[in-house]
Structure formats: structure tokens, C-alpha cells
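Handoff note, outgoing to incoming analyst
You'll be picking up this chain. Sequence as last confirmed:
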Amino acid sequence: MKKTFVAIYFALSSFLFANGNHKIFKLGDFKLESGKTLPDARLSYVTHGKLNKKRDNLILVPSAYLGDHHGFDYLIKPGKALDPEKYFIVATDMFQNGLSSSPSNTGSPYNGPYFPLISIRDNVNAGYMLITEVFKVKKIKAVVGFSMGAQQAFQWAVSYPKFMEKIVGIAGSAVEYPHGKVRLEGFISAIKADSSFNNGNYNSPPEKGLRAGGTHWSSWGWSQEWFRKELYKEMGLKNIDEVINWFEEFVLTWDANNLIALARTWQNNNVGNTPGFSGNYEKALKSIKAEVLYMPSETDMYFHIDALRSEAKLIPKVNLKIIPSLWGHIAGAGFAVEDADFINNEIIQFFE
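Most recent structure output, in case you need it:
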């Protein structure tokens, strides 16, 4: 049976953040793109390695949906693509994931369902403050992201075009297209259908809604062929009922309002909404100056390969490398050894 990283990345990720170098950057009263101000905003992050004397070896790794700053632990090892003996890795947590400012940890008037809408650009701007104010770095080596982390990576390249040398976007897009918005609305609706959700004012987790949300994700995370070939057995799961239960149990570890807020951020992602581009994402992508490694998963049902190929054609200095995997979207997280090796090797070559 092949080894996978599922136990590390999913089932345990929410419980492993207290590792000694976990820090909170206090952003103060942080003005959001919506015009609202998030009081006493906080950005959670961890670091690996050391900043060199030239201060030019920093790599930013933003988190993904249903993930935290442990998402790339499988690459943050000596000899791997994100070698902490070579690079200074800064792994950040998105707003709303429960570690940075989120519906679950923010007081009135922005507690729970009243938390303001966060944009991908808000996350990028907070990360920029962290890097420039805490680490005093004027230019970084790269931004590497998976899924919603890839959304942030592309946004970094548009918002701060001269700030990084390279961008790596894995199984994610610069724009959320209509079908993806509908898919996410289905997940949100599943949670809201639980009467105990109570419009987000629940006293205990809306378990039925969260389980329904887990069932939703279980049908989208992997490809159809992954199911047909029973590749779930490589995860130690015997049948599709165990696949569904596995995802349900994982979603139950999350706060419902946090999940919905993150999904809203995802739905509204569009690099074209960056100031100066008037909603034109094609113009925004054409403006990217950094070198880009664009790595879609061939069988991704979240971010369809055709849309990502189209985006890649718009980026001036792009290297399109498609992950040849049946693991669907989750291939981008390196769960299967073959996928992890492919991602690792491509990033190493790209950095060199």
C-alpha cells in the first residue's frame, strides 16, 4: 500500500500548530477592501530556517481552504523544494481559518456570522505588512500556494509585481468561475440547512450541517476515476461510505462560520478586481512580471484544467506543468507519493 500524507495534512493539521515557533503578528485596526475596519486584527504564521545576510531567501507559503500553515510540511524538509537549510520559509494562515482573525475568535460587532467579507487581496496585504515590517525584507524569493493559497500567489504577482522573483500556483486559479461559485454555494447551503445553525448564531456546532458539508466535499475532492479504481484503499479506506465518513469527520473539526466565510472569500476571487484593472482579469494576468510555475491537477474538479490552461496562456513568463494524477484536486496537496515527488521536483527545477 502506498504511503500518503493525508493523516498529516488533513486529520491532524488543525491540532499541530503549537510547535514552538507559532507566532501572531498584530495588524492593529486593519482596513479591508470592503471599506470596513477589522479591529485588533491578527495574522498567524510560523517560520522555518533563517533569513540570510542578503535577506533574499524568503519564501512565503500562504494557507489553503480546510488547511493551515502545515499545508506544505511535506516539502519543508532538508533536500526538498522548500529546504529550510537554504530558504527562510514563512507560512501564513488565511483570515477566517481559526488561527488568524476569524468569525470564531473575533469579538462583537464582528463575531460569528457578522464577520466582514474578506478578499484575497486583504490576505495578501496583511502578508505584505508582515514581511516588510517584521522581517524588513524588500523583495522575496517566491510565493508558493496550493488551492486558495494559489489564489493568493497569483494575487501577490498582480498586487506587488516587483516584490517577488517567482510564483508557484498549484491546483488553483486567479479567478473563480461561475461553476465554482455554484459548487461553493452548495456547500454553504448544506451547513445552513441545519436548523441548529440558527443563521450562524449557534451555541454548539451544527453537526448535521457540517456532516452534510463533508459529504459535499467528498464527492469533489478526488476524480471520478479515483473512485472507480478504488484508490481510496490507498488511504486505508475500504469503501465509499468510509470516504464520506472520513471527510465528514474532518469537516467537523472546523467552525461552521469560519468555513462559510472562507467560502465567500473563495467565491469572490478575481485578480481583475485589483485596483487599476477594472475587473479585467486578462489584463491583470498579462501584467505579471514574476516568473510563474503554473501547476494544475489534470483531474481537478474544483479548478478545471481547461480554465487553468487558458489563464496560463495570459501570463508572460509562465511554465505550465500539469500534475498527471487521478487524485483530483487533492493531488495538489501531495497526498500520494507520486504527486508529492512531481510537485517537489518541478519546484526544485523552477527555483534553480
